[in-house]
Specification:
The protein is α+β, with helices and mostly antiparallel strands. Helices cover about 15% and strands about 25% of the residues.
């Protein structure tokens, strides 16, 4: 007599941990290869854009750029020449001018007036409440020896506190402590308002260490100053100073050397390019105005 066998239920396969682990390792390897490739490419390209950061306000424009008074060249009329009337005689032209006040529009927006921003009309303007000065002036109403406490650069949305950098002793060498979420001032360089050069450092970016990205837009200044003045506001306990940018440049980190000047200037520094950071973008500015906070 045959015995009937019970039907058996097939076992479901176990969770494929081995397969998932293999895929994870493969994807990690691909990601590392891509990241390494991008880094190597960026490394080989580092410094190739140095010429793009070299710009200095031309000498013939420097005086007016810094807001220094300069008389207009005398006009010598040609014999028989009649002055051109300033009044607009054509009604249609006059009506259009009243609707489109181009004389109030910053020149950099003339090509796209519908996207015009609120930037003031170009030129060497100084805000109300500030006293225009030459960068070679010596202040008489207070001693500009206070440390910087804050910095603003409205053109690139910088608004940060400033701290004095500490020097780290690494045994066979010394280096400055990296500024953490702030702008750092090298203490051996000039204080705001003093003659000489004050040097200020901040990070371009810091994804891993979380040290901030205060100067992430500093490299943009090269193009900005070709269109409009860019001003750097530095605050101390007793005064606020305005420095106007006069030029930008880029150097390799090994070629960076602190320099000074005969007048009151500052230099802003950040690392470049992204992911490599072996170059340094420098922004130079000259003192044009101040106001006492006492």
């Amino acid at each position: 007599m045959a015995v009937a066998q019970k039907p058996t239920t097939p076992k479901s396969p176990g969770f494929p941990f081995g397969t998932i682990a293999a895929y994870a390792v493969a994807l990690t390897g691909v990601a590392l290869i891509v990241v390494s490739g991008v880094y190597i490419y960026s490394r080989t390209r580092s410094g190739s854009d140095a010429a793009e950061f070299i710009y200095t306000v031309p000498d013939e424009n420097l005086g007016s750029h810094l807001g220094r008074s300069a008389g207009a060249a005398p006009y010598t009329p040609v014999i028989g020449e009649q002055p051109v009337p300033l009044a607009l005689k054509a009604p249609d032209v006059a009506r259009f001018a009243s609707l489109y006040p181009g004389n109030l529009l910053n020149p950099k927006y003339w090509s796209e007036p519908e996207w015009a921003g609120s930037d003031p009309f170009g030129g060497p303007t100084i805000p109300d409440g500030f006293i225009p000065v030459l960068s070679t002036d010596l202040f008489r109403d207070f001693d500009p020896a206070s440390q910087a406490t804050g910095m603003r650069i409205p053109a690139i949305d910088v608004d940060s506190r400033v701290e004095e950098l500490e020097i780290l002793d690494l045994g066979d060498q010394r280096q400055y402590r990296t500024p953490d979420n702030t702008v750092g001032h090298i203490p051996q360089t000039s204080a705001p308002g003093q003659q000489g050069s004050g040097w200020f450092f901040a990070h371009l970016e810091s994804f891993v260490a979380g040290e901030g990205s205060i100067f992430r837009r500093l490299p943009e200044i090269t193009e900005l100053i070709k269109q409009d003045p860019v001003d750097v506001y530095i605050m101390t306990a007793n005064a606020e100073f305005i420095y106007r940018v006069t030029g930008t440049s880029q150097v390799h980190q090994d070629d960076l050397k602190l320099s000074s000047a005969d007048d009151a200037q500052i230099t802003l520094v950040t690392c470049w390019p992204n992911r490599v950071y072996d170059q340094r973008v420098l922004v130079d500015a000259t003192l044009i105005a101040y106001r006492s906070l006492q």
